[in-house]
Protein 1
Amino acid sequence: MTTTACQPPNVNGRTIVNQGLARLGFQPPGAVLQTFGVEVGHEMVVVPGRILPTPRIKYSRNNSPVADNKASWNLRGVKFAAGATLGNMAVLVIKDEKDNEFAGVNDPELDEVVTGFREMCANCGMKVGGKLVYAEARLPSKNSSDPLRKEAIEKIRQVLLAIRPSPSIVLVMLADEDRTVYEGLKHLCDVLLGIATVCVNSANIKKKSPRVYANMALKLNMKLGGINHNMSDPNSVRWLSAKPTIIVGMDVTHPGFGSAKGTPSIAAVVASVDNQYAQYPACLEIQETKKEMITKLKDMMISRLEIFRSCNKGKLPERVLVYRDGVSEGQFDIVRSEEHPEIMKAFQKYGKPKQPYRPKLTIVVCCKRHHARFYPIKKSAAMGNANPRPGTVADRGVTAGCHSDFFLQAHGGLQGETRPTHYLVVQDENRFKADEIQGLTHALSYMFSPATTAVSLVSPAYYADIASDRGRCYLHKLLHGITEEGTTLSCSHSEGDVMKEAVNLWRGGVHKDIKDTMFYL
């Protein structure tokens, strides 16, 4: 099925032209089209496009690996731009009667992989020290009367609280891919205990692959406050460094099928705090179910401005660039009419008599849910799999016209047909030129710290997407349609009751000890 769905773009293009038009009744035109005098052409529309230069990135000592034709690079021979300090670290082994789990804390293979991982962290430039403690949580067997595995999570809680000295981070060796254990553990550590965690499937880390170690190190360094790589694109750096600037990402995730009716949606706002645009702490809030507009945006923006000010010697940003994800094409104007005023109210908090605080604001909506696809007509503009080359941008012929918008494919397609992201500027007080906003968005797509590749969605928006998804772990009970009594929710439970239970599960959000970090990676 996957192979059938992931056809190369040239195959899809031929299918649309040669078979699709006929199946839709467009070729030859049916009676209805003929009645209205409508004709559908045989060929796809040709629009002008261009390929943006590959942005440069920089690691420690100005080491700049070159991205390949798939917009990816590797960590071989480079160190993080700013390596974090790895202090006291705990390794928690989850025992759940699985074939690939570790035998226990005395398993020689466990010591081997932990040593290999710590060596990778040191080789990448992290300062590895402190005490290393091993702990084991032997989970009770699965029980149909405990679908959320509360007993298992309670066992993990007891083991974590008994670890001495208190770790700065816990490396969790999961027994398998049981989402119930993972979600419960993240809720426990993020909300209740305030412990940073990095989770890995035991079967994966047992491969002893440098790539697995490196991917874990990328996340660990960012969670501990480090910087993996810097932006080195001259034009983007010049614009960002001209004035203090904050880059914001926003997203909302909604309950899906099988959730309790009334389960709230989760809004996430992330924002840069440093002049390297690497660290993006997140703020999460629950709100009315399936409401796309962010209800508490004013307070969430204030919280991001506060942490920016605390990290920049009391200075507030003079420019604000917002990337808003998750909005459908029919809701673009609502962002301007409803969310824009809330951001302005956040600015007003910092105003003084006769001296208002009024940074220049630009809002860009990011849309992945669209049906536009691009097929290169020149071999020089195509990758080996016939997808457009990374950095392909189209801003004429298929754009809105009433807004400044463009399609950008920053990433390299690995399989099937790549989908560009549609970026639409709904508010622009910074008066970006087309080349500036397109180039900056492209450069920021190379700043996704947990990866060594450009990503399909600009990094701040991608971070917000990941952060909102982490919030789902805190409401996993309701998202699975389970009441506080442990039974499936029925019509007798009102949406008000569900919201009350959600508030109880939410517990005020992320614990104060980790809320100003990138805990969500």
Note: The first strand starts at residue 50 and ends at 51.
Protein 2
Amino acid sequence: MAAEESRCLLGYPASDSCPRVQNKKLYLAAFAAVLGPLSFGFVLGYSSPVIPELRKINDPKLRLDSSQASWFGSVVTLGAAAGGILGGYIVDKVGRKLSLMLCSIPYVFGYIVIISAQNVWMLYFGRMLTGLATGITSLVAPVYISEVSHPKVRGMLGSCVQLMVVTGILGAYVAGITLKWRWLAVLCSVPPCIMLLFMSFMPETPRFLLNQSKHSEATAALCFLRGPHADHAWECRQIEASVQEEGLNLSEFKNPSIYRPLLIGVALMFFQQATGINAVMFYAETIFEDANFKDSRMASVVVGSIQVCFTALAAIIIDKTGRKVLLYVSGVIMALSTALFGLYFKIILPDQNNSSNPDVWLTLNSASPGTESSISWLAVASLGLFVAGFALGWGPVPWLVISEIFPLKAKGISSGACVLTNWIMAFLITKEFNDFIGFLTSYGTFWLFSAFCCLSVIFTAFYVPETKGQTLEQIEAHFRRS
């Protein structure tokens, strides 16, 4: 019976009488791990309510001008890119559990620097540190969750990474309505402290332990995660069968089983940012103001709530629909909504071809009086549709897929390359967005994003494997055969 249960939880065919897996402690371990992405969300959401306050602050040493405000928001992505490289190294050296615990240090220290800031450079340094922790977290948390989970719930638990990120962003928006910037930093430092406490009681992943030849510890970890009645020895044998020689030489990247999942992962991260999520969020407050939503902070809360609701929906259905279906639906929705955004700006904005000033805010204000308010519903509908579409697929699924497709020996370096790609793309699109507007015009830029959304659907159809219901060992074997 125990062996039958193990085969059931690992996704192999079994009789209908197969008993249910004991998931309680697995859910506890996943909850402890996703406190990292919650902290990551608070970092991303922190700048939205804080920048308007710091632009008006009385202390001239802390007051931000428009350029400094832009850097305060975007320097996190540079820290996160560095965190992706560091995370790729330490996740294989010290393990998944300890990597998550260690990343709480730059989170907390970064917020301490922000709280005690005496000048703008201290604010930058604090944001850089929290960005470093964010980069490590965005790599390690999905890997930990995918390696402790079994196929029946891995999609749901893996999607909870993005769910907690958007919950953290929403939490920062809501708390920012009432809290001053220093007290908001204090609040943001709480989740990483709780993660450090909880993770200290959780096991290391069985795959990492077996890769280190720690068989008794791996069996104990499986006993904790699966319950006492599962056939732990059988699952250990399944994992060990896929664990090849230790170490990874650069020459092995000529092997399709190594480079194919890496290219797929890097492309997923590229398309996630190239769909225009940061650009759309950049426009969000102005769009709501044009539609007579006077409180821009409440508008941010509305956008954050849409993200949370549709990411939660994705987490619930992903193990039934599969990964590719959500990427298809999400890509089509985003292609349509960004095309509508382009139409909106084409209608309300004058000819920009000869304009030497690409500033988004000025071009919006130069629209014909009354035009934007008469069709502002189009922009609001496009915004809501886009955010919902992104949250349903291209928000959570790429992070889940990159945690599933890499072989164990290449997981650190491959995941690091993907995280680095994601955060460099996020930085470039955030910082160079105005240059895009100047070169392509507003509507041209959004139509370009729409084209990338269409390309993402085509890429998914031809290159992204469906991983629903498969063990990590089966996914590895798929790339070895191909």
Note: DSSP finds 23 helices and no strands in the chain.
Protein 3
Amino acid sequence: MLLWLADLPSLYFTSEFATTSPSCKADFQRTASRLDSVLKRDTDGADVRALVVTAHPDDECMFFAPTIVRLVELNASVHLLCLSEGNYYNQGAQRREELLSSCATLGIPASRVTIIDHKKLPDDPNAEWSISLVSSAVLKHITAHSINMVLTFDGRGVSGHANHVAIYKAVRHLASTGELPKECVVLSLETVGLLRKYISFLDLPFSWLLPSHLRCVVGSKGYKQAKAAMLCHRTQLLWFRYLYITFSRYMFINTFQTIPQGPKNLKIY
């Protein structure tokens, strides 16, 4: 079954857009036409400068590994911005090193990994992160590296973690206020229900048939790479993490929706 998965189109950017807003649809279609040619298996993706924005060390492999693996295979320039050291249990220094090892395993060099350690951005599910502070950090990174693709969590944060959701709100704020470069496409990782989340690669038919704007799938080789990255996070390897590695669809499949840029259209009746 894994070999069969490896033969499927592995990274697919669709031109579907479920909105009634003509301006948002036009903006997305312009972005799609620019990036569609480089987001295909048989095409070089050197023009793609992608930024994955995460909250904690291990988010990159727990949730985004299929996307990172595929983008790296396409020769895209992949950057990671992690907004905390993961210091909830006072293990920040060790988790920083684990993150760098994980990124190296996924194909992201240390020179493209940025880890923020800010007292107002603690690794804490009960902490309310400043949207303006997160927005500022993300925008600074986008500008410094001429990023044209941002990938992060959606409004449910995959696991529901408040820090994940805060990043989505910050990126959505940047998109809605028009502060991002017009050529930058912004994508949020789709949160799926509990059943779909833990049926591993058996979720593929659902992910393939249900509407999304970017789908990334890995086969056995990509899964082994994602697993090796997870195993770099030794401080996090409790028994349930091994179950996650075995059963989570996020080890095999990522689906994304776009976050439209520009202010929302107001309708007056």
Note: The chain has eleven helices and eight strands.
Protein 4
Amino acid sequence: MAEKQVMVVAADESEHSAYALQWTLEHFFTPFGPNTPFNLVIVHAKPMPSSVVGLAGPGAGEVLPIVDADLKRQAARVIEKAKEFCASKSIKDVAVEVIEGDARNVLCEAVERHHASVLVLGSHGYGAIKRAVLGSVSDYCAHHAHCSVMIVKRPKTKQ
């Protein structure tokens, strides 16, 4: 039997990320049961405390450990939520990783490390200005990841 391809799914604390994982499991894993064509790797990029705080100088040394502890708790919640969701869909064979760094680099490096054939990301749906200021992880990965990139968008709800 041929070796399964690897699908890397990006995970963060956003609803967009949770939806992307849900959509991916429902379309690529649940229908196949144990015969899914993919191995699943969920990757969370934990920001470095210094990138979150954005300050240096007196006082930074006391703040960074507190911020780092909070980021570690947040990462643990993201991974636990992803594992619970996989278990609820009867998907037991899932690898999870928390890697410190900028999400753009972390995800592209995970693709390389796992020889992934697909990278899945949720779309935050930022407008042009916010995307220009913040940068788009999905846009960066679409141009730099050495695999197919699937950007999952939540359907627009009518109000």
Note: The mean pLDDT is 87.
